[in-house]
Amino acid sequence: MADPPRLDVPRGQARRIGSFLRLNPDAVGAFAEAIARFLGTGRFLAVQTVLVIAWIALNVFAVRLRWDPYPFILLNLAFSTQAAYAAPLILLAQNRQADRDRVQAEEDRVRAAAMRADTEYLARELASLRVAVGELATRDFIRSELNRLTGDGGDDGEKREKKAKKKRDPVT
Asked: Which intervals of the chain are annotated as region Disordered (predicted)?
């Protein structure tokens, strides 16, 4: 049985608007993100400021070029049109980013769960190795047992170590 479609992933198929226009949601989204990215730059603000200053200066000081006298109604209309298109484009870009963030968060949760399971497995393995190592014979134990079995009666590892320590530090 097929998995149901995820709601946080765009379909990616072209949609028909009207009878003649097809829009690819991914292309529209990429365009919206590019516009939103540009609208948030200092370059855009600088260019817009220069254009507004030139517009106002020409309409105030150049008497023959006045196409938009003092209340600057045409300039206000241009700003309104810009805002009418900019706001939805910015919201579309934010929604796409939120969808990507949601998918990334889900992938992070899955990765964290797998890492947690791996860590717990390694902790159990390490604990079992510690138990197994605790049951292993040490070098000194094997040496003392060999000395005892051969009937050598010689010094075992502990006595030899104590003698070597007294030779190095006779005060103790």
From this structure: 147-172
